[in-house]
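Figure-free illustration: sequence to structure, shown twice.
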Amino acid sequence: MSELVRKTSGITLGDVTVPVDKVNPADNPDHEIEYIDISSIDNASLKIVATKRLSGKDAPSRARQRVQHGDVVFSTVRPYLKNIAYVPESLHDEVASTGFCVLRPSPSIFSRYLYYFVQTDDFLRGVYALQRGVSYPAVRNEDVLSQPAPYLPSIEIQKAVVAEIEKQFSRLDEAVAALKRIQANLKRYKAAVLKAAVEGKLTEQWRKDHPGVEPANQLLKRILAERRAKWETEELAKIMAKGTKPKDDSWKKKYKEPAGPDTTNLPGLPEGWVWTNFEQLAEASPNALKAGPFGSALKKEYYVPNGYKVYGQEQVISGDPFYGDYYIDQDRFDSLKSCAVKSGDILISLVGTIGKVLILPEGIESGIINPRLVKLSMNKNYVIPEFVKAYLQSDAVRHSFSTRSHGGTMDILNLSMLKELPVPLPSITEQWQLIEQIDRSFSIAEELETTIKTNLKRAERLRQTILQRAFSGGLV
């Protein structure tokens, strides 16, 4: 049996706390209150970080508990989120939601001793075991109050225990803050690498060492020439299939050359680079740039257990093309074939998490994109998908997406915005060099990120170890 439970001798939390006053702010409609609800609490620091200033007449019906300095508020809704906080002096005599079990210490227990006790895994496990509901799990106040109370030495010893907890937590917090600073710096470092890559600075020395590489304007001319040649071959085949032979070349005038971007206000590029866009770079095939189907064409009732996969934001955001199990049958796939994908295609999130990018690898399941994605099929002989992904994930493009997107509660892109986006193009050789240098830099950063995440998890476990020792007599 846990030392925490063994020492309590049947005393519950309800035995060492006292009831709180109930209030109705509407009784004083013009009086302003600071209202504390679950959204007020930062469950990382376990502190009240924001309150709502409301008049009595505007206070919600759940604003019914008068709190005092030293009270501990414990959320009874989704308790696993650990919305626990200590009421500071600045919020003395304010009002809390009935979504909290407000723990007001009796004279036998020091308030911060109680605050740290309800953060222990032993205590929380006992509460979690009494949760009711699936979609909105919650516990009752009496469930919280029925949990075993901590061992209660004298108030002086309780204060000494708290002082030691806070001394050790302070050291731990400093270490965690340092890890998070490094984590933030790594994020900035990766953004700086992408910025240097798409501006050509990352391969500046490489270009000096390789002066004879074909410039990108020549590469673009070949891309456009091959596109036109393919169209002419296919168009001539259509004409010949009708049993006629063209008298002259006038039929070639039907070809529509994809227009390049307006470069008037665009920054200069490194020598050998050229501005282009996705319409010029896309492979010469129908639906190379394609948004997902209208929602009415792909409702959830059309999904089946097996068949053709539906790719959506869940794959793009997770970075895992094999995740998910939404499928459509052959007939539905045939009707939505224009939205089909293949390996090498670039998928871009259009809604909410705009600009998230995924390149589909070899071995993916046949399928289509859903309405929240767009696919880009690039001419892979001349444009490396990984280079396009790096460009789309750069801060410059993310900022462009953010400022040009629209939507009431979510950022929303569309295919037209992507088509209008100017793209800086280096030679195919330099693209490979850029990807190699990005991968090398990111590999180092990601190793460090993994180490930091491991140490942050270790710090959280150490926090629990400190609490466990504190309430079993191991600290003082």
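We now fold a second protein in the same way, so the two outputs can be compared directly.
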Amino acid sequence: MNWLVVIFGLVGILSVVGTVQGFKERNVLSIIFNVASVVVFGGFTILTVIYQGYPPTL
């Protein structure tokens, strides 16, 4: 679970970068998909760290 949280966190961060680029290019479809990715992956990462801690308790 450790590496999964790290990977999903990186995907969430890159989705934020993609959202900023979508606003710069005024690409609506890019903004929609990147915001959805931030919500899903970022939410999973934050909730996993809150409920299991990092590193996770066994």
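Summary for the second example: Helices lie at 2-25, 28-52.
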